[in-house]
Amino acid sequence: MATLPTTQEKTVSHAFDYKGFPAERSKTGGWTSASMILGGEIAERLATLGITVNLVTYLTGTMHLGNADSANIVTNFVGTSFMLCLFGGFLGDTYVGRYLNIAVFAAVQASGVALLTISTIIPSLSPPKCMEHTPCVQANTKQLMILFAALYVTALGTGGLKSSVPGFGSDQFDATDKQEKKQMIKFLNWFYFFANIGSLIAVTVLVYIQDHQGRDWGYGICVCAIVLALVVFLGGTRKYRYKKPVGSPLTQIAVVFVAAWRKRNLQLPSDSAELFTDDDGVLHEPPRMIKQRLPHSKQFRFLDKAAIKDFASAGGIMKINKWYLSTLTDVEEVKLVLRMLPIWASTVVFWTVQVQMMTLSVSQATTMDRRIGKSFQIPAASMTSFLIGTILLTIPFYDHFISPVAKKVLKNPQGLSPLQHTGVGLVLSILSMVAAALIEKKRLTFTQSHGLFNNPSGKTRLSVFWLVPQFCIVGSGEAFMYMGLLDFFLRECPDGMKTMSMGLFLSSRSLGFFFSSLLVSTVNKITGPIQPWIANNLNQGRLYNYYWLLAILSAINLFIYLACAKWYVYKDKRVSEESMEE
User: Fold this and answer.
1) Which SS3 state, helix, strand or coil, does residue 12 take?
2) Whether pLDDT at 76 is above 60
């Protein structure tokens, strides 16, 4: 006689329904719920890239700003979007939960894009069109303030969405159930696929609509997509599985540093067994989650002071306080994060290279022949589709061709390790900037030979497809970087800090975009107004020198990365080695 499923088997551990009761496995979660969440990611990518990849042409062509200023506005906008992921993740993990995070920030993003749409409709919110034989009038302070308000409200919404959508989607599957765990892995793969589909639609269809029907139509479609995705998302409220906020790993890091600093004058015991551990009793309320026990390491010994048992300051009674005493496991988890930071920092320059494909490379495309046949003309921003297309092709190419060879040659069952993946991406970033510099030199020579040196609006007969190599090489590099870094952060981050892995990954992109803004401003300031590398009229500039500079910086960064990668020891290997020593 078949046994009936127990109450525990009917419900999902640590998950609740919308009423706050334990979530029933048969009535909540699964693919039905996850599919309603995927729409939010498509809409987010559609809006973010639909604005970003074509923004530089709007700033130069409609707002009449210079190439350098336009590039910096784009990189600052995108960088802020990614940096706000840390804020969104902290808010969702610590206070409001991922569901509310998605609902609120989707509305915020829709409001930002709606304001941007309005700014393109009302004539007084943009400068007059350029007239022949008269200088163009740049956007005034009021017009730029409205534009920036729209962009940064959108950035706030984007940051909150990016930090919560993948996590809430994975919450719909029970990782302790073998069948649902397989479905969760499948969901994550489809999540990345749909994200890139949304990106591809943005840089092709949406950009074409913006160029031929108007920005108001293009941005209006983005607003409708976000609102529709939000309605669908809210429609699944009764079907979702919810997890209560458990606190942010950033708090744990702060606690360890504060506790170590407060006990900086105490002497560390010679035996690490005398430090405070989980076996000594419950430290925090509510009860702590069960964590993987990590062996004591000798690096960053100062942080060990956070786990010193202080009896003297409390009259012989051990002083137990969250901001004064941490467990040795908490300390070791923070040490793991610190070891990862050099790897994280040495990937920032790659994203500085990548963002050039959405800014200066798009500006290059506007000066070249973009015709296919007699009538169709490719939008300049749609050149980014070659980057996204290469990403989609590189991943299966690696799985079917490179990985089997790497497994045999390197004798590694996984093929390339996460750090090797990342290293390949960094090498490709160097090659992409070399290609970009050579192609820009060719474009400039062609332009000058045809008498277009002083004509910023003149277009050469040089085909825009000469730019394809730099887009494709960067796209392939991004695929390797994405696979390597995401695997690295998920594998190496402590079990209690998994939610921080996506934040670290996205924040490296953010810093890369901010570094691009700083670099562009510095280069223009040094090269001066007489012979600027990044001129408002690219035909009078020396953009190829800027690309050579990025190639050199990328090469220097590669050597720094190789040193960091050689120094780094994977968590599993460190645990096994130190366990053998004990």
Assistant:
1) strand
2) yes
